[in-house]
Design goal:
Pdz3 Domain, 25% helix, alpha+beta, 2-enoyl-CoA Hydratase, Chain A, domain 1, 24 strands, 6-stranded antiparallel β-sheet, 446 residues, 26% strand, 10 helices
């Protein structure tokens, strides 16, 4: 078992509204003491307002909708990852962790109060229609999306299989927005893809962290071992995150048992640690690929493997989401998604807004007619949490884990799609692993 207390709240560490939850630590939720009672006097103002609206508004109002709207406004005043989920949205969220839902297949975020596509999911209606990372969704079925919450957007975009939805998209370089009519499908999220590349190098891509990701990863590793691989590329690019226990279990596939993967701290300062648990791990040389779309659980895995010197991290600065969300069910079937803690790598690095800096910075080159799109990171989101680790201390810690020439890249755009042959980051990873093997096999000087 993980070294932590158990409780009935649900921990989330994802950048997306469409990812999952796990059983988490009880120390995150504070208790109400007698001194808090005075604060609840302000509820009188809310009750008065509700009563006045019900009695005097020009049209009849629905009391539950008013209350739900007030709660949404309350949560929206916090960080961008805290939100209110009505009963239907909460049920959908629980289904998401199983890796299946009915919708369009796009990962979304809010930038400058505009609904923005972070990335389309492969082989989904959005992907097939040509929706690109960086696209601005101005309308959903004719309704403006400005100031919409992520949860409301997800609810509008999802629906029964076979039903259609019209999204109005504005793309950089377009003079006018364009309508896309998309038909919803059941989206089966395959979180693990693997194959053997040249020179006996294995390749595994994790698209997100679900309930079955770790077990599917184990199966993929076993299959690759049968091909006698002697090195591995773990691709976490554009992986938005997911389950905390999934990140710990994935890391456990590459580190010995008992190694610290991540620890979290809430407002009280209580520290909660998560360690690897396994009965064997893959120990051949490996490179971890990351980019601007690698977030949350992806950053936990990359940060842990980097801190322990287990893998070379290659690519671009990651998204920078270092906060934990606790999902707290309410009595009417709705739930609160509340940011309750920050998480830290084994060496104590907070990646909130800063992300993971690769050991080797490698840009994804843009060739031919490939289009580029603006990068959306945690620091770009309105009301994001600040990094609580001082920059001076962070720089000192970074000296121990990466070369001085790494630096912090300033990336403003990323290529939309590239083929494997044009995948410069993957090719650099393969070259590194091949060079690694060459030097290891060189005869020692006599």
């Amino acid at each position: 078992m993980f070294r932590r207390k158990t409780t009935f709240v649900l921990l989330l560490i994802t950048v997306m509204a469409l990812t999952g939850f796990v059983l988490g630590g009880g120390s995150l939720l504070g208790k109400t003491d007698a001194g808090d009672n005075g604060h609840y006097a302000t509820i009188k103002t809310f009750a008065e307002t509700l009563s006045i609206v019900k009695q005097n508004y020009v049209e009849e109002v629905n009391e539950k909708e008013l209350v739900y709207g007030a709660i949404k406004g309350m949560l929206n005043s916090l960080d961008p990852h805290s939100s209110f989920m009505p009963p239907e949205a909460f049920k959908e969220m629980q289904i998401d962790t199983k890796g299946e839902f009915s919708g369009l297949g796009i990962q979304i975020g809010i930038k400058d109060k505009m609904l923005t596509v972070i990335a389309p999911i492969d082989d989904t209606p959005a992907y097939k229609a040509g929706i690109k990372a960086g696209d601005k969704i101005l309308k959903i079925d004719g309704e403006l999306t400005r100031d919409i919450t992520l949860q409301d957007a997800v609810t509008k975009l999802r629906g029964p299989k076979g039903t259609s939805v019209i999204i109005t998209v504005l793309r950089e370089g377009w003079e006018q927005p364009k309508d896309f009519v998309l038909v919803r499908e059941v989206i089966l999220l395959k979180s693990v893809k693997s194959r053997t590349l040249d020179d006996r190098i294995g390749y595994i891509k994790l698209t997100q962290f679900q309930q079955k990701t770790a077990s599917d990863l184990g199966d993929a590793l076993e299959k690759l071992k049968k091909d006698n691989i002697n090195a591995l590329v773990l691709d976490l690019r554009n992986n938005p995150g997911g389950l905390l226990n999934g990140a710990v279990e994935v890391t456990s596939k590459f580190l010995p048992e008992g190694k610290l993967v991540v620890f979290i701290k809430g407002r009280s300062g209580d520290k909660q640690e998560f360690h690897t648990v396994n009965d064997g791990h893959f120990d051949s040389p490996m490179v971890v690929l990351v980019n601007e779309g690698s977030a949350s659980a992806s950053e936990i895995v990359a940060g842990a493997l980097q801190d322990w010197g287990r893998a070379v991290v290659l690519g671009m600065q990651t998204f920078g989401k270092g906060s934990v969300q606790t999902v707290i069910p309410l009595t009417d079937g709705s739930a609160l998604r509340l940011t309750t803690a920050r998480y830290y790598t084994p060496k104590g690095r907070s990646i909130q807004t800063t992300g993971i800096t690769p050991d080797i910075v490698a840009k994804a080159e843009i060739k031919g007619n490939s289009q580029a799109h603006p990068v959306l990171r945690e620091k770009d989101l309105k009301q994001h949490l600040k990094n609580d680790v001082s920059r001076e201390k962070e720089k000192e810690m970074e000296k121990d884990i990466r070369p001085e020439e790494g630096g912090e890249p300033e990336m403003t755009e990323t290529p939309a799609e590239i083929s494997e042959a044009e995948d410069i980051q993957l090719q650099r990873a393969l070259d590194l692993l091949k060079t690694w093997k060459i030097f290891r096999e060189l005869p020692k000087a006599g």
